Amino acid sequence: MKQTDSTNQYGDERDTAGHEYLIFRLGEEEYGIDILKVQEIRSCERVTRIANSPDFISGVTNLRGVIVPIVDLRVKFSLRSALFEDNAVVIVLNFGYRVIGIIVDGVSDVMTLAERQIRPAPEFSVMLSTEYLQGLGSVDDRMIVLVDIEKLLNSEEMELVEQSMSLADGS
Predict the structure, then answer these.
(1) Residues 6+ apart with CB under 8 A from 27
(2) How would you classify residue 127: left for phi > 0, otherwise alpha for psi between -120 and 50, otherwise beta?
(3) Fewer CB within 10 Å of terminal CB in the chain, N or C?
(4) Is the dihedral of CA 82, 85, 91, 92 positive or negative?
(5) What is the DSSP string of 1-38?
(6) Residue-level pLDDT at 5
């Protein structure tokens, strides 16, 4: 049977628009972020607190010579605060011009979601402004909140963190 551009050998629609997401947990909810933004996943380590930084900034850590701000997404999303003795992990994100770590409850897997599996973000969100949501991924009985992590972490609040870090460095 000759294969066309839009169907596979079984006659099914081929989903060429799939995108990979790293799936992580915060509380009972699952969230997904673009896998291409992820540099590495690390265990939670002690961080150095920066004076006058927002509550959601746990502090900074030295990652192979790079000072990395660590954002506690549980605080940012108005959930319970992270405790370093629990199973939390740090996802280190690289945006090309900035490296940031985020504390989450755990990472479950990497998942490819096709366009048909992603629904528009709801008009409201209690924990997170909808401007940071890419949509809701639906796989079997799982609902995954897809977050535009770069937009979330490039907010005005992060500019304040960088200013605090500059003051702490004396630059």
Answers:
(1) 74, 79, 80, 105
(2) alpha
(3) C
(4) positive
(5) -PPPSSB-TTSPBP-TT-EEEEEEEETTEEEEEEGGGE
(6) 42
Please state whether beta strands 133-139 and 118-119 pair in parallel, antiparallel, or not at all (unpaired).
antiparallel
- Contact status, residue 22 vs residue 35, Cβ threshold 8 Å: yes
Q: What is the DSSP letter of 110?
A: E
* Residue type, position 51, single letter: A
Query: For residue range 49-108, what is the model confidence (pLDDT) as tens digits?
Result: 888 788 888 889 998 888 899 998 888 887 765 455 467 899 999 987 788 999 999 999
What pTM does this model have? 0.79
- Measured between alpha carbons, how far is 76 from 80 in angstroms, rounded to an integer? 10
97-110: buried (b, 16+ CB within 10 Å) or exposed (e) per residue?
eebbbbbbbeeeee
Task: Return the sign of the alpha-carbon dihedral for residues 97, 103, 108, 111.
Answer: negative
Dig out the tokens for 132 from the structure.
């940071």
Q: Is 93 exposed, middle or buried (0-12, 13-18, 19+ CB in 10 A)?
A: buried
Phi/psi of residue 140, nearest 5 degrees: 50, -120
